[in-house]
Design a protein that fits this description.
With 341 residues, the protein is α+β, with helices and mostly antiparallel strands. It has 14 helices and eleven strands. Bound molecules: adenosine-5'-triphosphate and magnesium ion. Magnesium ion binds next to loops.
Length: 341
């Protein structure tokens, strides 16, 4: 979605407003000006992790690799080379920068164009150092250009999920067997991750709740990034918040994890495409995932946030003028009523 800063910094709120997606700008942000931003440290006293990931470090890295080239020229040549393309969602295309390990370029298709990149300053975003890496941005230009923290791993659904879901929602076509199989394999793989991977994610969400006002975008399962090598489960893409979309607390919790991992919008369609044997495998893996989530959530005090999830799905239906997401979510909750009632 239209991502939000995890910071006390300020970027022009008007540029994050779309017709359907309201935005949240904390009071403290409303009072400051992007022009006046500096590299002043965030005002928490016991700064802990992710401390080094910021725009200065990014520029330093860039300079080591690309010596005398300007950042804007690097950006333009990066996004013009297909090899650097990583993925897209409903709003944005994302690219890696050759030689840069920890940051990505994110381009919001609707707001970006090369001319505005050249004409507008790139503004560093002050970081809340206590917030874990949720792929938040470290700089942007208020015209659809962002540098974000990279999260290592693979997206948790079909590469073109946002395209597929549009077709499924409008009954243009059915899910293909190959697509169902891919989603099944990802769910099975995730179900085999150790409890610790789930615990670490729950702890990160606990910190997100404690140190920020951000809400996880549970709609697109590709906002879950799964790192098979390090066995970590991560979330990217934090979006509109609380009062403006009518969200109700708790905003991030058990159901944020369940919904990103099992995608209620495709779950039933995947199930119906599979053989009986694979249907059993899907059910068994999904139950394993839910059990691990419930254990992790208990450890880190995360609550059920099903009511908030319902509001988000209702919002999708309203914005697209269809009835797809809400019934799909109701069916999903029924399927797992013994665990998620
Ligand atoms: N910080 C990141 N680390 C790793 N991969 C990322 C990161 N940001 C984006 N990606 C990849 O790029 C894709 C699109 O990015 P993003 O989620 O920002 O787009 P979007 O249009 O806002 O998505 P949505 O459909 O959820 O609104 C992601 O699904 C993911 O595969
Ligand atoms: Mg996304």
């Amino acid at each position: 979605m239209l991502i939000q800063p995890i910071s006390i910094g300020y970027t022009n709120p008007n540029n994050y407003k779309t017709k359907n997606i309201p935005t949240f700008i904390p009071e403290v942000q409303k009072q400051s000006s992007s022009i006046n931003q500096s590299y002043a440290p965030f005002l928490y006293s016991n700064i802990s992790f992710e401390q080094k990931l910021n725009y200065c470090d990014f520029l330093h890295e860039l300079h080591k690799i690309h010596k005398n080239k300007s950042i804007k020229n690097i950006v333009l040549s990066t996004i013009n080379n297909k090899e650097n393309y990583i993925g897209s969602g409903f709003n944005a295309d994302v690219y890696s920068i050759p030689g840069i390990e920890n940051y990505l370029i994110r381009i919001e298709r609707k707001n970006f164009n090369p001319k505005s990149l050249l004409e507008n300053p790139i503004i560093p975003e002050l970081q809340n150092e206590l917030a874990p890496n949720f792929g938040q941005y470290i700089a942007c230009n208020d015209h659809g250009f962002f540098i974000t923290k990279k999260v290592h791993g693979k997206s948790h659904s079909l590469p073109n999920w946002s395209e597929v879901i549009k077709d499924l929602e409008t009954n243009k076509r059915e899910l293909k067997y190959k697509e169902a199989e891919l989603i099944l394999n990802k769910i099975v793989n995730l179900s085999e991750f150790p409890q610790k991977s789930y615990d670490d994610l729950a702890q990160n969400i606990q910190k997100l709740n404690k140190y920020t006002k951000c809400e996880i975008d549970i709609m697109n399962p590709n906002n879950l990034i799964v790192d098979d090598e390090n066995k970590t489960i991560n979330i990217i893409d934090l979006w509109y918040k609380h009062s403006e979309n009518g969200s109700v607390a708790p905003f991030n919790g058990v159901d944020s994890m369940v919904n990103l991992m099992l995608d209620p919008l495709t779950y039933d369609k995947v199930f119906n495409k599979l053989s009986f044997k694979l249907q059993d495998k899907l059910t068994e893996s999904a139950q394993k995932i839910i059990d691990k989530i419930l254990i992790a959530s208990e450890k880190y005090g995360l609550e059920r946030n099903r009511e908030n999830a319902k509001i988000i799905y209702k919002d999708i239906d309203k914005n697209l003028d269809i009835e797809f997401a809400t019934p799909a979510y109701e069916k999903f909750l029924e399927t797992f009523a013994d665990k998620l009632a």
